[in-house]
Amino acid sequence: MKKKELLNIVDAKKRGEEKEKILLSFLNDELFIDFTNLKLLVDIVHKQSGYVLLTRLINKGYIVKHTIQLPTGKISIWGITQAGLQTLPISTTISPRPFEASKITFTSINHRLMIQRTRIYLQKKNWTNWKAGDSHQFKQDYKSIKCRPDAIVTSPKTVTFALEIELTLKTSLRYRTIIKSHIEAIEKKHWAHVIYVVNTNNDKAHLTRRLENIDYIPIGETRVPFSRYRNYISIFTIDEMQKLTHD
Known about the structure:
- By secondary structure, the chain is of the alpha+beta class.
- It has helices spanning 3-30, 35-42, 47-59, 82-85, 106-123, 136-141, 172-187, 201-212, 238-242; strands at 32-34, 63-70, 73-80, 128-132, 151-154, 160-165, 193-198, 216-219, 222-225, 233-237.
- The mean pLDDT is 91.
């Protein structure tokens, strides 16, 4: 075998191992992933190379495949096993657990996958310190927060943002309660701004209208006009998050 060919093989093996580590580290707290998010996470260009990566990890016993029937059709996801978790460094901030297919429902899977997509987009733009709102560490660090966001993350300019991933719109009354919780968190300097992420421009318009229908936020005994806090909130579509160039 020629030296150049040997080097190409060694290089390909190294890249494959790096992608394995990236995926397993991601699954350490995300538990599962679909193929669309996998391609974004490890920069898969050719579909076949993605399936080769997944098959290799399945054969090692590090991940398992599960298919879920959604109203829109079947979807395949891959989750981390206990053996996969044991390949990763022990964390002092999270208590990882293996993927359990029985705990995944079609009502929550799309929301989780969109949270993942948002996370991947931001991390590729050098946003850091991602912390999921349902994580044990978040609950420990922010015990006073009444309405936990889907996640918080820090921008390259070291500004902390709260993220709300909205697949189903809520009532204006419910948004008033949630935003009050955000305002209290902002005043305590837990984070500085809130980003709502929606699917489409139509969703963005409807959410904007819901927020416009909020006339005040109850702070203590005072009804503070919502307009005072509107600049703390931004709304982006998931496609806009991919192209986000500012914080």
